[in-house]
Amino acid sequence: MKFMKLGSKPDALQADGNCIRYVSSELATDVTVNVGDVTFHLHKFPLLSKSNRLQKLVSKANEENSDDIYLDDFPGGPKAFEICAKFCYGITVTLNAYNVVAARCAAEYLEMTEDVDRGNLVLKIEVFLNSSIFRCWKDSIIVLQTSKSLLPWSEDLKIIGRCTDSIASKTSVDPAYITWSYTYNRKLSEPDKIVEDKMTFLEKIESVPKDWWVEDICELDIDLYKRVMVTVKSMGRMDGVVIGEALQTYAFRWIPDSVDTLVYGANASRTKSVVETIVCLLPYDNSIGCSCSFLLKLLRVAILVCANESSKKELMKSISLKLHEACVKDLLIPARSPQTTTYDVHLVQGLLNQYMNDEKGRCGMDVVEDKHGEDEYILARRSLLNVGKLVDGYLGEIAHDPNLGLSSFADLSQSIPDFARPDHDGLYRAIDTYLKEHPELTKAERKKLCGLMDVRKLTAEASMHAAQNECLPLRVVVQVLFFDQVRSSISFQPLGHNSMYDPSRSPMNRDEGCKKTMGDNCQPLKNQMSHLRIKDEELHKNGKLGKKNSKNSKSGLQLLPSRSRRIFDKLWSLRKVQGENRSSETSGSSSSPTSLGHGDTKSYGLSLRHQRHSIS
């Protein structure tokens, strides 16, 4: 820390208790100066030789036959006046970053300028500020922080402005030329650790990160911090990533982790100011440098402290631009009154709608022909896939909420395009959870809920679980079993003598293969199966038929629940009538339901096609 000593005489200013100061001298004091609650007994001559204002006040007091002078609004208080008084007496006084602003304001108040005496206090302090303080990184920050308590004097004397410019200019210096000390306690990222391990001791000393300045300015109050960051951004030399890192570091420094402290503590108003300031300082280029997780946490705090609507809207806009980077945990923002749900589903719906609008506007949801446009489309599609996983994960969490309405669940699940869900396993898990947590759903509501899911996009594991799920409607169970067997028949279908690669068998075209197989092989059963209506009551009546065929179908259906086995028993009995036709349509299949070869799997799977349309 830089310092400057003024004067050479020993300290003759004595204290008598906490409220009285006097100069130990053979000469009696002839003037009394009252600064706040402290009284100074001094001599007129040394004071009047340096201060133009004291000359005026003493002259006025003499006219009133008084020796008392009152300085109630003195900047810096008794300590600052003591520095000025010692300077007038030539007593040694030390100026540093902690007291120089108070001394400068006090000297300005007392009009200790060159017009009164050469080499006066104002000039000496200005030289010290310009030659030492503003050239030192940490001293500039200390001076800026102490200047807040001395407003408006520090502002009028341009101390705040000069400190801000000094700090901002140093942040843009090439790190290779940083020679002063700074604070850096954050953990290095993994790549930085690898590089650091390979560096020599000298290289480690000379290596300075780009965000070396971030932690030191975190000690500033929010209004001063804002001024520094505005100046840094206005210079246009700072990378948006570093600015984002600075904002995150300041937020973690001053925003409490406890919700009770945020809402009910004495720092609630300060936290609100911090949030609103950080939002207005976010980088212009899509909030680069600020992670989506950080922005969502900031939004949560903004809601808790009732930040202004413009800040919330700006945050939502920034979040929507990088929603594909979010995780489910960050989206679980508690709902506020009058909402009855556990989490703020409407807020997430708004973020998702804004994200989709941005994606449509940016890419048009169409493939662009040129190479650059194609790359952008691929990146946009990948982002949408991430959002699809995010939405399904979020649905799985909020499905536990008993107050979540079906319409909110459905709207959220339908907010993304079909290709954003390559498979529907995540959506199925969310639907399964919702059915278990909401047993009061009507038959129509259950049908609507399950209609959100495409059973053709379930994986084998999810299909097996769905086939045994007692919560699903019978129609959905049959659809799951049918498409699972159709996919199996396509996968194991023997190749002909022209065994060439068929694109329809690839995973990308599996649904198209299912449709083709159904169209080629299901026509002979269409008329008979279209009249079959299966209900729960009919299944119980056909219990004997189920028992009769259970032994034959045991090997393929033993893992299914009794309801699913009864459905298959019904279909096997019908197959006996159509045995010959099916054998001709499914190459190599057996007419006996006791053997489930490749052909049989395809045959009874195809028969379920019509059953799926007949179950209500």
Attribute tags:
mainly alpha, two-stranded antiparallel ribbon, Potassium Channel Kv1.1, Chain A, disordered C terminus, 616 residues
Strands, total number: 7
Strand content: under 5%
Number of helices: 32
Look at the helices and sheets and give the structural class.
mainly alpha
In terms of per-residue confidence, which ranges show pLDDT below 50 for 5 or more consecutive residues?
A: 188-205, 365-375, 495-560, 574-616
**What can be said about the biggest beta sheet?**
5 strands, mixed
Radius of gyration: 40 Å
Q: State the distance separating the first and last CA atoms.
A: 83 Å
Rounded average pLDDT: 78
- Share in helix: 55-70%
Name the shape in a single word.
elongated
Strand order of the largest sheet: 2-3-5-4-6
At a glance:
By secondary structure, the protein is mainly alpha-helical. It has helices at 44-48, 52-63, 77-89, 100-109, 121-131, 137-146, 153-156, 159-171, 190-197, 201-206, 222-235, 240-254, 259-264, 268-280, 292-304, 309-320, 328-331, 345-363, 371-398, 406-413, 425-437, 443-450, 460-467, 474-491, 510-521, 526-529, 536-541, 543-550, 554-557, 562-577, 579-585, 598-614; strands spanning 3-6, 13-15, 20-23, 31-35, 38-42, 68-70, 93-96. Among the domains are: 3-135, Potassium Channel Kv1.1, Chain A (2-Layer Sandwich); 322-360 and 380-487.
